[in-house]
Structures are given as C-alpha cells and as structure tokens.
Records
---
Amino acid sequence: MSETKNTPFLEVKDLRVEYFTKEQVVHAVNGVSFTLEKGTTLGLVGETGAGKTSICKSILRILPDVGARIPSGEIRLEGQDLLKISEKEMRAVRGQKIAMIFQDPMTALNPVQRVGDQIAEVVSLHMKGTKEDFKKRAEEMLEMVNIPKQRYVEYPHQFSGGMKQRVVIAIALACNPELLLADEPTTALDVTIQAQVLKLIGELRDRLGTSMILVTHDMGIVATYCDTVAVTYAGSIVEYGTKEQIFDHPTHPYTIGLFGAIPNMNVDEEWLHAIEGLPPDPSHLPTGCAFHPRCPYATEDCAKEGFVKPVTTPDGHTCVCCHIDEVLKGEK
Amino acid sequence: MPETMLENVKNEKIKKSSEFLRILKQLSYNKLAMFGLILFALELILCFSAPLIAPYHYNKLDVTAMNLAPNAQHWFGTDELGRDILSRILYGGRYSISMGVCAIAIAMMMGMLLGSVAGYFGGWVDNILMRFLDIVQSMPGMLLTIVISAVLGAGFVNTILALSVNAIPHQARMLRAQILKIRNSEYIEAAQSINCSRAEIIVSHLIPNAMSPMIVQATMGVANQILMASSLSFIGLGVQPPAPEWGAMLSGSRQYIRDYPYMVIFPGLAIAVTILALNLFGDGLRDALDPRLKR
Amino acid sequence: MGKYILRRLLWMIPIILAVAVIVFTLMTFCPGDPAQIISGSGTSEEDLAIIRESLGLNDPYLVRLGRFLSNTFIHFDLGTSWMTGKSINDSIAERLPRTFVLSIITLLLSMIIGIPLGIIAAVNQGGIGDNISMFVALLGISIPSFWLALLLILLFSVRLGWLPAMGIGGIKYYILPALAGCTGGIAGYARQTRSAMLDVIRSDYITTARSKGMPEFTVITKHALQNALIPIITITGTRFGAMLGGQMVLETIFSIPGMGTLIVTGVNSRDYPVVQAGAILIAIVFSLSMLVVDIFYAWADPRIKAQYERQGAKKRGGKAHA
C-alpha cells in the first residue's frame, strides 16, 4: 500500500507517436513525459500541430489503427501501463476511468442517434442496470449540463454547437471518470459560448473531483483552470512546471514568445508580438532543439543532436533549453 | 507587369501539361488499370484485324466439322453448323465493341449538349429538360432500350441508337451537375474578375473541369453498353444472326448447352473479359483523376 | 411526413401520364400494319379494313391517344392482346407478382452478400479482405447475367440436377434466376458500402464511440453502419430498377411467365398493346419503389426527415401567403 503513495495518479514516460504514409513518417509526439496527481488539472499548451491531441488519443488508445504507431513510451494510470494491457481491459478503462471531450462538437455526435441514447449508451457499457436505469442516468446527466431532460429524444442537428458540446461533456462524465481529457473543448465554439462551456467543465470537475488534462492554446484558460502547465512544441514538452512557476518565470524562449503574443490591454500597442517563423513540418523536424530556427537565442550548438537537455530553473521547474542563463538575464 | 503576366500564362500552360502527365503517371503506377488497358487494347487489335488473323471466315460452314470440341484446328471448337467459334468471336468483337463505343459517343454528345444547355441557362430551360429526363428515367434502362428497339427494329445502327437514348439522361445529368458545381466555384469568379470572356471561361475552365468525370463515366459506360447490346441480341432484338455478335452467338448456342457447353462458355467469356478490362481501366482512371487522392 | 408522401404520389401522376403518352406514340409509329399482325398473312383487304375499323385504327392519332389514356387511367382497362385476344389486365395480374417477387429476392440477395463484402473491404482497407472483396465486386459487374444464368443451369440443373432450369413453382424455381441476377447488385452494394464506410469510419463520432469503451464490432455494426446505410439506401432505387429491367432477359432464359417474358414476346410478335401496358406498369412499379426508397431514406436519417417536413411546412406557408 505504501507503493501507491509514491505512484502518481497518471504518469506518462517518454511517449512517442508516429504517423506514417507511404512516403514519409510524421513524428507527432517525441518523447513526452509528465505526471498528473489526483484531483489536479494539467494544461497542455502549444500551437496547432504540436501533438497535443495525439498525446490525449494515445492515453485513451484511440489513435487510428492504420498509419499510427506508438514506438515507445509508458502511460501509467495508478501504476498500470495502459499501453501494455489487452484491448478488452482497455475498453473497461475507456469511458469509465478515462473519458474525453473532443475538439469539434459538430462532428463528435452520431447524427442519426438521439442525444439521450448516446449518453445512455456509455452508461450501459460500464454500469449494471436496466434500460430504465440507463435512461434515467442519461436524463440526470442532461440536467447536469443544463439541458432540459425533455430533449432526450432529439437529434444532434436540433442542437446548437454549445449544446452539442454540453452533450459531449455529459457523455464524458456519465460514468464518473477519474480522468477527463479535454481536447480544446471550446475552440470550435462561439466566443460567448466558450466561457459558459469552460465554466461548466470547471464546476463539474470540482464537484466530481475529477483529474483533468486540458489541451488549449489559450493562456487565459490555463491561468483560470490549471494547476500545472506543460508547454509543447513540435511534439515535445519544452517547459513544464506549476502554473505559478510558468506564469511568473517563463524561461523557455518559446513560452516567452507565447506570452508575448498576448496583447497587453493596458499599453497602447500597435502590433501584436508574434513568434517569428512557422511551426516546423513534423515530417521534417529540425535537428537538435526543434525550436532553434525560430529562437532568438539560438547558437550553432542548438542544432546538434542531443546537445539541448532539460535543465532545472532557479525556481525549480523544468525547461528544455541551453540558454536559460541568457534568457533569465533578459538579454534580447 | 505584362511580363509577369506572360510568365503566369506560360506557367499555366506548363502546369496543364504536367497535370496531364501526372494523370498518366498516376495511371501507370496502377498495375490493375494498366492490365485492363492493355487487355482492352489487345482485344481491339485482335478483333479489328480479324480478317487477317482469324483462321476461318465467320460464316464458313463446314458439315464435316460440326459440334467439335476445342482442338488444334478449332481452338474454341465449332458450332452446330461447323463454324469456327474463335473466328466468330474475333469478328463478333467488332460488333460488340463498336456498338458500345458508338452508343456512348452519341450519348455523350447529346448528353453534353443537353447538360450544358440546362446547366448554363438554368431557370425554366433547365426545369423542362430535367423533367423530361425524369420521365425517360422513370423506366428501367433495359425496358426503355427494348421498347425503342422494338420501334426502330433490329439491326446494328438501330441498336446503337436505342442504346444511346437510354444512356443520354445519365450523361446529361452528370455534365449538368458538374457545370452547376463549377459555375459557382471561386475560380470562375476569379476568372470573371480579371475580365475573361464568357467563351473563354467555358472553353478553358468549365469544359476541362467537367470533362474528367465524364471520361471516367464514358469508360464505364462503354462496358455497360456492351453488356446491354449483347443482352438485346440475346433476346432476339439487336444484331441478328448469322452476324457473329457475342450475345447473338450465346442465344444461338443456348439450346446446345446440355451437350456442347463450350459453345456457350467462350462467347460469354469474351464479353466478361472485355467488360472486366474496361472496368479495371475505368477504376484506375477514376482514381488517377480524383484530385482528393493527390499527394 | 404524410404530406411529403402525398406530394410525391401526386407528382407521380404527370410522370406516369407522360410515360404513357410517349410509349403510346412510339408504338403508334412502329413499323407494320396492326391489322396484318393480328390476322396473320393471307387475309383479304376487306377483312383487314374491318379489323382496322373495329380497333379504331382509322381515327386520328389524338383521338386514339385520348381513348387509350381514358381506358388506361379512368377505366383501368389495358386492352386486349392482339396475339392471344386475352385481357391484358388478367395476364398482368397473373405475371406482375412473379416479376416483383423475383426482383425483391434478387435485391435482397445482392444486399445480403454485397453489404458485408463492402464492410469487410472498408474495415481491412488496403489489406487482403479489401482486395478479395473488391475483386469479387469487379467480377460481379463484369459477368453478364444471362451468361451466368446459362452457366448456373449447366452446373446445377444439367450436371448436378439439383435445381430446376425453367418454369415456376416453389421457391426453388427462383433460386437460379436470383443468383444469376444478383451479381451486378452485389458489386454495386459492395462498392457503395465500402466507400460509405470509409467516409464514416474516419468521422469523429466513431472516435467518440470508441472512447466510450465500446467493442470495435459494435462500433462498426451500430454506429458506422447506421450512418453508412444512408448512401447505401440511395442506390437501392436504381438497383431495383436495374433488376426489374434485367428480368426481361432472365425470365426469358428461365422461361418464367412474368412481365419480362410478356414484354419480350410482345416485342418479338409486335403485340404492341401488351408492350405498352407492360412498360407503363413497370414504370409505375419503379416509381413507387423509388418513393419507398426515399421514405426509408428519411427513416434512416433524421436530418433528411426534418428536411422533408420543413419542405412541407414551407409549401403550406407559401400557400397561406398567396
């Protein structure tokens, strides 16, 4: 029993994900490691294509069968490696222990099934009971996400985007999962709806005590909902620490760039500060530190394989950069 | 500035020819499609050089060699009148293949005319034409073809006409749909915005873009028409015996199936191989022309 | 939904009328003198004149057309056969069910074989299952059904003697014709199912279903197939039409006294009233089956149903305005 004390709730170690077509291999995730304690929320931050969705899908093992591969890595949920267990055991995990909220609610629901049935379905897969029980639970879930239970019999096309996302949330939470993966849950929604949906997710998380991985590229959302933050770039985590550490002392040039891209409303600025250049093509990643072509601090060494290593910053969080001294001195 | 425009035009030309090359290249990668193409080409050559290569004349009766099973002199055997089945199949291919090709050619021309008129003018012209096609299509294709060949009478040309009438609505609808889709697309708008004339738009944008699905459809259509033509001849319409049309040959040898099954097997095999070849090629062509498969 | 069906049924009336007019006109301009056809050769000119007069063939075209339409659509009398002198109504009442049953059996057979082939192909995209299924489909469209019919007769009737080669009777008389007629349908369904399934399998809601912890088999059969069914249903109407048409040839081979043989013998013996009646009847059956298909379509996809109902509502709204 003493072991469980030391075992983190979720531990991801050196996870790699590759997609391959006939011609090329795309390295979507390159050696990602992080841990998540029970009841806390990790923010996974990064640009589009940084591998955030692939990380979530590999935790749930729902990467596409054809063309996707996890060549190495461990994903330990309460000590059990999810990549090693059988598909049947994994099915018991999906939906019950770990659930996922998807990016685009418009396409995440089956268009020819009643929304209530789609919630009841996940209940029926993991809980014992009669059809009436499942239906009752689905109705409860609808009410929990502020949808009148009379709308159980309606179809997704009769719902607005925000309501569809609330149905997706209801599906995800129907079996009281211990871990919730929220993959940019508000990106596809109107700005006004975004806040509502996030607030709902936050409230339900607090009420049910669920741990959560929140994927986003919005630093504001991270500030409100997360305890720890992992900044991803080109399939790797470049900076990892508590919210306070990252927000107070951003150390990686990329993280600093991300904060720089948020306009400061108190100062009259003419231009947004964008990070120069484009995210790299994941099928042809730069050698060494993937960020070096865009990094103002980059030296020739940064392009060398294996030269850039994780370092611990003065305030105790991790940063994968060899120029932190210069960064902290505030040069450039 | 004019120079850069000229440059653009040049690039455009290069792009077009490379597009064609790309399709050829894509097609040449597809082994099955190439197999189909070669098979069909081979068949065309064999059938159309039948007078040169066929061992016998298709109507040469030989009372000494009736109902012979396949042997060294008669590779596919002989029929009830002692005619060489291989020779008849070679000659017959000329009927079957040219009926299919001609019927589709006529249907395509008429279909393009109707379809482009409907698609281009829209409004009541479109409405009337489409309702008319509705009526024609409310009869199963085979039935329509039978009724029309009943009116026109049997024979080679009449059968082609009957087949093409049946195929017109499909071709017309297809071209119309393509034109409607393209007409509203942004690159036509872009062409209009730089003052391209109407004729230019039709010739250089609408037709080429609508063509590729039409070509695929035509390839498959030829296969389908060959099938229909042989069915017609089989039930006594279409091409009449003693012409060695494949369907007519099958119909003639049907009664001998019990004792001489090879009489039935070879003409049918000829039809099946032709249609298989055309479909293989058509499938490959569709894949090559489908821009969604582009890499 | 009821309003939608009613509207579609009403729309069928002008279509069928137009088919009747076209077929009648075509038949009128067919070569040959009907009186000669009816009486055979060697009839005197006076007798021919009497026959023409009794059939009303001397009346102007429009009068005959009007008479034909009123007989057909008001009195539901399709006339008498020139060859047998029998009422066409009677022979159709006897024959249409056979053709209909045969077509339905053929259609079901091609669905039962074709759809699973398509699913297997889509699930194993690029693998052995895919290649085998698609090869079978390719064979299906390439083999002429009348040739396959002959081969089946050769094997099962002549060689093995298991199944009857011709005529009608119990269900076993339908087996060979249905087998011969279903190949094109199998190919069509297999290809359509494959492409529909490939589209559906990549959708997000399939990932949602997997993330619920649902067994893969259930994901495919429940969520994927349910959505893939929609495009599959759309081809059923045309397939059924093709099967009705295909019966013209297959019934001839298997000597099944159905609509196909009726029309084909009608054509061959220039018995034009029979051809006319048969063509119109088949067109009606075909149009009705297209309607049934559309209703199934709405049943499978609530979005389509909503669209149909909205159209109805719009029509009503428009009328209220006017």
---
Amino acid sequence: MFSRREFLMAATATSALIGSGMAGRWSKLMAQQSLSEDALLSMEPAGNVTLIHITDIHAQLKPIYFREPSINLGIGEVEGKPPHVTGADFLKLYNIEPGSPDAYALTSEDFAALAKSYGKMGGLDRVATVIKRIRSERGADNTLLLDGGDTWQGSYTANQTQGQDMITVMNALQPDAMTGHWEFTYGTDRVQEVIDSLPFAFLGSNIYDNEWDEPAFEPWKMFERGGVKIAVIGQAFPYTPIANPRWMIPGWSFGIREEDIAAHVEAAREDGAELVVLLSHNGFDVDRKLASRVDGIDVILTGHTHDALPEPVIVNNTLVIASGSNGKFVSRLDLDVTGGKVAGYSYRLIPVFSDVITPDADMAGLIDEVRAPYAAELSRTIGRTESLLYRRGNFNGTFDDLICQALLEERDAQIALSPGFRWGTSVLPGQDITVEDLHNACAMTYPAAYRSTMSGQMLKDILEDVGDNLFNPDPYYQQGGDMVRVGGMGYTIDPAKQIGERISGMTLIATGEAIDPAKDYVVAGWASVNEDTEGPAIWDVVEAHLTNNPTVKLPDNQSVKVVV
Amino acid sequence: MTLSRREALGLTAGFAAFIAFGPKATIAATPETDAAIKAFTGGAMPAEGKVSLDTPEIAENGNTVPVGVSVDSPMTADSYVESVMILADGNPNPAVATFHFTAISGAAEAKTRIRLAKTQNVIAIAKMSDGSTFMDTKEVKVTIGGCGG
C-alpha cells in the first residue's frame, strides 16, 4: 500500500482545496512540490526476492493521461469486490483522500481537474528510472522483471513498425519474461520472428499447436534469484483467437487450460521451485477463480483487464497483483522466501508521475530515436476537444462517442458499433487532438471501417453476446473486454440476467422508434475479426470527421441505461 | 463485428432454440438427447464421477471444437470401460460419437473434434463392463466474438 503515509501532506492539502471549490486552480507546481521521486520510490525492503511487474503498456512510450473507469460492474460472487469498485467507493475502500495523487492515479474522480494538477503518468523512460532504482536497491541478482503482455500494440508508432519500437525499448529494460495477447495481432510470422529474436523468454503455457494439439510455446521457466529457485509460468490471453482475428494466427489455439497450469506447478515444485509465479494475461476475475482452483501458486501477476489495485487480493494463499495499464504503474513485490515458502511480503503499486520521476536519460534518448521518423505526423493537430475524451468503463466513453459519431456521419449509417477495448488514452478538455491521440484510441492491424446492413434481431444478438462476454457470472466465460459501444441507438441492459435477457428497450435515437427485430438497419463499425472486411481505416474516418467538425464537445453518454 | 449470412442465420436459429429450451439447461434439455442417453444406458440415470470431459469453455471455432474424454477406471478383464458416448445437446441428432474399449485398450481415453452451431452442453457417458454408467457435462459457449481487449 503506497498511499496514506507517504502522500499525507499532498492529500490533505488537495482535499482542503477541493473542499473550497478551488480544485481547478490548484497549481501544478504546488501539487508536485509535495510529491518527490524519493517518496514515490522508497520502500522498506523485505525478504530476499523482488518481483517487478508491468503489464498492458499498450505501446505507450511517452507519458499519457489515462482515466480509470467510473463503472466496472462485477456480477455474482465478485459483486462489490475489487476491482469492481470505482470512484468514491474505491477511495473509501482503500482509505484514499479525494483529490490526492492516489485518487488521481487510481480513479476517475475529478479526473480532468486533477490531471491539470498532477500531470501525465507513465513514460517508459520514467519506468526505466523506477526499475533501475529497484534493481540497485535490491541487487539485480535478486530481482525478476516480468512483463504481462499487451506491450507491442496501441500506438501509431507501434502500428507503423509492427511493434518494433516497443520491442527495442523493452529489450533495453531487460525483462526476464513476458506473455502476450495483442502481440498476436501482428500475425504468426511476425510473432514468431520476434520471439526468436527476444533476449528473454516469451512464455505461454496455454498456447497449443492447432493441428497436433501439442504445446506450441515455452510454458514456464525456472530462474534463480536471491538464492531462491523461482518458476514463472506464462499464461497468454485465453480467448485471443475469439476476441481478435483467428485468421491471423490460424495455427495456434489458446484457452484457459487450468489443468496444464496445475501440472506445471507440480513439475516446478518437483524441480525444486521454492516460489511459483503465474505471469498471466487472463484478466482479474479469471485469475481470482483460477487461484481458488489451482493450489500451489504463490503469486499471480495478473493483466488484461487493466485494473490497478493498491493492495494484493489474497485467494487460496495466492497473492493476486494487479498493476494497471499504459505504464501508469510499476509493481514492486518483495518476498521473503524461506524453506520453500513465502514467509512474508511487502508490496507497492508505484504510480509513475511523469513530472516527479526523473526520466532515465539513455531510455529517453532511445524512445526519441524510435519515434523520430514519425515525430511530425504524431504531433499534427487534427482537432480540439472541449470535453474530456476517455474510453475506459463498462459502457460508452466519450472517445467512443466521437468514433461512433464519425462512423455515423462519414459512413452515412443509422447505427455505429465500436469495440469495448480497455486501452485508449485520455485527452483533457481544452487540449488539441493530435494524430497520436487518435491512434492511441484505435491503432491496430485490422482497422477497416465496414458498412453493412443488420437486422434488429442481429443487433440484439450482438449486444447479448458481448454482454455475456462481460457479465457472465462464471469468470471463465468472460473475455475481459468492455461492452460494445453503440452510436445512434440506445438500449437498456440488466447485467445480472442471463444471455438473451439482458438487453431491452433498443431504440433508434434519430427517430425515437423501437428497433424492429425483422427490419434491416445500416450499421457502420470497425475492428471486425472476420477476414476480408472492407472499408477505410477507422483513423481516416475519425480524422475526416474532425476535419469537418474540428471542435469536439461531448457530454457523458446517456443512451445506455443500466439496471442495477 | 460483421457477420456472414451463414453466421447470422445460425444465430437466429440459436436464439429461437433458446426460447424453446432455456439458455442454461443443465442436462438433457432436448427430448432427443434424453432418448439417446436412455437408449445407451438402458433407461438408467447415469451417476456423476469417473468420466471427465475436456472441452474449451468458449469454442474458438464452432465448426471444429476439440473434445477429449477420459474415464478413471481399471482396464482388466473383470472390470473395464466398455464404451463412451459423446452427445451435443443442441444438435438435431445429439449422439455425436461412441467409442468402444476392451480391457486390452489399456486406458479409456479418446479425443475428437465436433461441430457446435451454438452454445450448448456437451455430455459424455461411460458404460462400464458391469453395466453401470457415469456422466460428465460441460457447457461450451459459441460466441459471435470480436470485442475483447
């Protein structure tokens, strides 16, 4: 828990200002004076081994704004449990002062105002500073750096270089292992080529060869750090060929395959592992369930669902660590491993305040170098926003509404569908929208914006299907994305119901008429997983829309009604 | 998110079936499945245990879903697994395959791939040499997909 003690001064000061209604005038300088690199990074060391975890960077080399969700519902057993706690409830649960640096880093509360005070977060040059300091404090021989994947995708430069910018920069950080998800959207050949060249292990216990039904990747690896034998098992995103295009990786099959993990745990223990770590891209709820069913995992470093939790969740003697996304956080987990057991631990979710943590000069140089060929295009202004643009949350974010608006108008459609990805950075009110900002919300290898007709029944089936991927009470049936974003149509959703019964009240917003199951509608969307989808790239559609409508003003979406 | 006509038709048909039988029927939701099980067991209700199905929670490709089955049993002349039937509850003809074993099979294990048009239960029933029967059921979800991330 990094918060209370260390941020007390800043927290108190800011909350007083909020109370007096002056949050927006709280100067950036003052906010940063009460934060220091030392306060952010210092930690009472514990034990003999340190795990450093970073995940879901989504190719964000530079500091970013990223608003955490204001709605993240948990269904069934996980209702009201982290990470299904947001906003003021989150602050209360973790005893965080409103308006404090933690409140800014971890929640959506007062985000735009606090962003102006505390600045951007992340940046892999700052992350490098954090990692170097941990390695020097703890000794590089006692430390493992593990990357949970979704590292190579999510930016203009990553898309232009097929992830090479990220691969170059991450190699300089010297991770010990990684696993993946969006990495696979570069296709079999590219993934194989990169993995063959990586100076560290790419682990995937749950990736099988489709033809022979045999493991296709190195499932786990034994390390020795601080005199402790550590087994790291890799778990890629189980539903990669379903949530992303299967045709790009036709030879690989995924799945949860918990019995394989159990077998690796057993094999690792037989080989003398004293610490067993699952480096996972399962998503939080899947990992929580897995921890309850597979014995003998000491630590799960979870990813995929982009949750940032200031404390581990402990399930069946397993520490489940959620380290956020986009380079906003680095997790440091000190472990006291004695006699083949975890005797104690100390944990800190380190928030990477980019104006407080000094960039590592070598890494800053390398980042500028990989971005240099694209610098002019990245900073090209294509519009301006008066509203906060963000995506994260179970239902439409304002950035999605912008994308849907662009699809409706530029593609002359009645209804727009936009995928509920959890990546995509935020743009503050009053900021210019640059090419970089736009691509942070849609950079991918299958960007075609299709235009087709769908019946009302098919639209309902799609909403029901995606709703079940998100709200199925059994986490093993969840895919870890948010609800598909919809433009031009409103609907009501009751997440606690079963598939086929969650969605009601589908209405065409333009006319107010109810969606007729038997009638066809013109639908525009993007990111289809089907091969040979035709249409312009989504970023061209949105840029054209911004050229025609250069000032964006979008209030929070009101067209989805949630039955709680 | 675009759908082929075939997928769209499959979905619509699936939806109609849901209305008819309920989306989460636990066992033998259709009379056809029920009849196939009874024909295999001689009318008896199989017990839980011994047989275990290995299926994906969500199918990557409904046209070829890997299904594995294994039975925890001795394989001796006195006591062995005689046969294992696999059923797909939502198929018009639910009995998909029956594997036959003898004591010299060594182990009662089999793998195959089956086609599932929509979300449904896959059922495995093992018949032992003494006539007793055991079953396992797993739900396999067939999704439209495309929005994870």
